[in-house]
Design brief:
Blueprint (H helix, E strand, L loop, with lengths): L5 H7 L14 H11 L11 E6 L2 H10 L4 H5 L2 E8 L1 H9 L8 H24 L3 E5 L6 H7 L6 E10 L15 H4 L10 H18 L10 H7 L8 H7 L6
Antiparallel strand pairs: 1-2, 2-4, 3-4
Helix pairs in contact: 2-6
The structure holds flavin mononucleotide.
Length: 249
């Protein structure tokens, strides 16, 4: 029996696309993507997320700058801002004359919900031959993004997503993944070969970048990752999310 199917094929073919043609995405396709995504599982049926659909050129331009000058944010025909959103839970509490006890768990639940709905949108978009890049850079300045998108209190943009048809129909080569043994564990966690396999991945990724003509360190994964994470990133995040209505402790 054939055990592969179109969903498996779409997931296996995933590659991030950062160059988009100017071809518009039809309303029907965009609607199908969003409706399919909205069917995603959601913790306790909280549906603690909102999605802002941005097509306006000026807004995308501003979002591109706020995301660290990422040109694809400006160039994609559709940008989706995936927001964790606990405002409707506040409403539920108000309707029922109860106090909402916010805590870190609610922040995590709403952020996880937001990640899940976005991944569904990603797969749905790719199933139409669209290219996608998620944008974590949008967390550089959560308050400015919130203001630009007129977010309600109790919402923050967890990440963005550029969607569009790949420029000239060209997809980049797929990035190799780490060894399966590093990621998938049978019954219990096994870290016995972790360092050795990370070193192997460094070399494999270096070969990949080499093939693509991208100049990279020999330790192509561990070197840039460790450098990037040597200092705390987005140190403003805690205060900003608290100002936007989330609890982080
Ligand atoms: C939550 C999240 C945030 C990301 N943020 C960015 C981003 O801001 N800019 C970008 O160019 N790529 C971004 N990416 C794409 C990753 O760099 C990419 O998925 C990773 O390098 C693996 O490559 P692949 O998706 O082609 O396999 C993001 C991916 C995820 C899941």
């Amino acid at each position: 029996m054939e055990t592969k199917n179109q969903v498996i094929e779409t997931l296996n073919n995933h590659v991030t696309v950062r160059n988009f043609s100017s071809e518009a995405i039809s309303d029907e396709i965009l609607n199908n993507i969003l409706e399919a995504a909205r069917r995603s599982p959601t913790g306790s049926n909280l549906q603690a997320y909102s999605i802002i659909v941005v097509k306006n050129a000026e807004t995308k331009k501003k979002l591109a700058v706020l995301s660290g000058n990422q040109k694809h944010v400006e160039e994609c025909p559709v940008f989706l801002a995936f927001c964790a959103d606990i405002s409707r839970i506040e409403i539920a509490s108000k309707i029922n004359n109860r106090k909402l006890a916010k805590g870190l768990e609610l922040t995590v639940v709403s952020t996880v919900d937001t990640a899940i709905v976005g991944m569904s949108a990603n797969t749905a978009a790719e199933s139409y031959g669209l290219g996608v890049v998620m944008i974590g850079g949008i967390r550089n300045d959560p308050k400015a993004v919130s203001e630009l998108l007129n977010l309600t209190k109790g919402a923050y943009v967890v990440y963005g997503m550029c969607i569009g048809y790949p420029k000239s129909g060209i997809l980049p080569a797929q990035k190799p993944r780490m060894a399966r043994e590093l990621i998938i564990h049978n019954e219990v966690y096994d870290s016995s070969k972790a360092e050795e396999l990370v070193k192997e991945y460094d070399l494999e990724l270096a070969k990949h970048y080499d093939k693509m003509g991208i100049n990279q360190a020999d330790k192509a994964w561990s070197e840039p990752i460790s450098k990037k994470l040597e200092t705390v990133r987005r140190a403003n995040l805690k205060n900003d999310l608290e100002d936007l209505g989330f609890v982080l402790d």
